[in-house]
Design goal:
12 strands, 7-stranded mixed β-sheet, single chain, Cytochrome Bc1 Complex, Chain A, domain 1, 40% helix, 15 helices, 442 residues, alpha+beta, globular
């Protein structure tokens, strides 16, 4: 993890209005005293370019019945802007920032929504001004809501025609019955069609407040100037009312589940999922190593067995690192003529082997080396690092990022076997199969 340009944290007196909280991995955490906005600062590198990212702790996980897709819909509307930055004012958010050379966008996921600008240091103040303005001043014009509804429905329909996306959604909606991880981030079509501007306003007013946000600034910048800008733009915004966490309790799965998707296009595929712990659970790290051992690199177990063996074009294993318990998944894309039942059996055999036999030290060392390389590559540059930090914030603790590799290096072969035996249990398994409809000649 790159260290910041300051070897010790700047004192709170250096940044009036802020309280310094903690430092780890070159990142300093502050809180804006008046409203609870968390600020993460990481000056790094010589280039005077930085990433400004606001992470709101709201995702599809927070959506109530009948409002699925509200988080994603609101993400779109945040770019329609305010009285100051909008099409009507002649200064849209995209145009204003992109004319300064900024890379601008946003994403929505299960546990969070984030908005970001990658831009020259000279324009950080402008990015902060826009983010503070749209945090509480979104207009949500009814005409623009209807226009954007069409855009989102088109996006939804495109996804409905993508077999692997349909398969992924089918897996999660089958694996989870009560928890809101059951529904896709984009929402169900009926809810997208019926949500109103007032409904979006209610959702916005629940979650878009300083106390529910973390502002990260990473890259080449002057810390004192940036903190002064943050205070100037965000300091007067009220904290907002406290948000009660949703009472999300998934009933214990009592047996294997299975679902099949049939549509035209693509090759056969399958995903096997097992219930897995949340990102803050110590058992998550051994499962990250399991994913490395199974599918990362040409010497990984499933690559050798299924890709080199000719049954699959690719195999990938991963564990969700969400705020609540999720899934460990293995996805296999099959070659023409491969037997899906045999591929599934081969995957389950490898998982079972992990529960019965310790991984040897050479294989563990290779997995750790692969994980380290992939992790460091994923943090290359201010935007990449901000994106990784965004996921740690969403999972419940930004310090997951600087501690990640240290935690990985502490994993033992015994821990992998133990966690595998507790995770790869038949009664906790859900399988989703894509069985393409074969075209017939006339």
């Amino acid at each position: 993890m790159p260290e910041s340009s300051t070897s010790t944290p700047l004192l709170p007196d250096d940044f009036p209005g802020f309280e310094w909280k903690e430092r780890e991995g070159g990142i300093d955490c502050y809180e804006l005293v008046d409203n609870g906005l968390r600020v993460l600062l990481c000056p790094q590198g010589e280039a005077r370019v930085a990433t400004v990212m606001v992470t709101y702790r709201v995702g599809s996980r927070n959506e109530r019945q009948g409002e699925t897709g509200a988080t994603h819909f609101l993400e779109h509307m945040m770019f329609k802007g305010t009285e100051r930055f909008s099409k009507k004012s002649g200064r849209t958010i995209f145009n204003v920032l992109q004319s300064r050379g900024a890379r601008v966008n946003a994403t929505t996921w299960n546990d969070r929504t984030n908005y970001y600008e990658l831009l020259p240091e000279a324009h950080i103040d402008l990015a902060l001004e826009i983010e503070a303005d749209r945090m509480r001043n979104l207009t949500l014009d009814p005409e623009e809501v209807e226009s954007e509804r069409t855009v989102i429905l088109n996006e939804f329909d495109r996804g409905e025609n993508e077999p692997l996306r349909k398969l992924y959604h089918a897996l999660w909606s089958t694996a989870f019955e009560a928890h809101t991880y059951h529904h896709p981030t984009i929402g169900w079509r009926q809810d997208i069609e019926t949500i109103t501007p007032d409904g979006l306003r209610s959702y916005y007013d629940r979650f878009y407040w300083p106390h529910n946000a973390t502002l990260s600034v990473i890259g080449g910048f002057d810390a004192a100037q940036v903190m002064a800008s943050i205070y100037r733009h965000f300091g007067a915004i009220p904290s907002g009312t406290a948000i009660s966490e949703p009472a999300l309790q998934e009933p214990r799965q009592l047996g294997e589940r299975r679902t099949t998707i049939r549509m035209r296009g693509g090759m056969p595929a399958l995903i096997i999922g097992f219930k897995a712990p949340c990102a803050l659970d110590p058992a998550i790290m051994p499962l990250h190593l399991v994913s490395m051992i199974l599918s990362h690199g040409r010497t990984s177990r499933l690559h050798r067995k299924l890709v080199d063996g000719g049954a699959c074009t690719s195999v990938s294993a991963s564990v969700s690192a969400f705020r609540d318990p999720g899934l460990f998944t293995v996805m296999a894309l099959l070659t023409a003529g491969a037997d899906p039942d045999q591929v599934e059996k081969d995957i389950l055999d490898e998982l079972h082997r992990l529960t019965q036999h310790r991984v040897d030290e050479d294989e563990l060392s290779r997995a750790l080396a692969t994980l380290e390389a992939e992790t460091l590559y994923a943090r290359d540059g201010s935007f990449s690092m901000a994106s990784q930090l965004n996921e740690a914030i969403a999972a419940g603790d930004w310090k997951l990022l600087p501690r990640f590799l240290e935690s990985a290096m502490a994993v033992t072969a015994e821990a992998i076997c133990d966690v595998a035996s507790r995770t790869f249990v038949a009664d906790q398994k859900t399988t989703a199969v894509y069985d393409p409809i074969q075209e017939t000649s006339a």
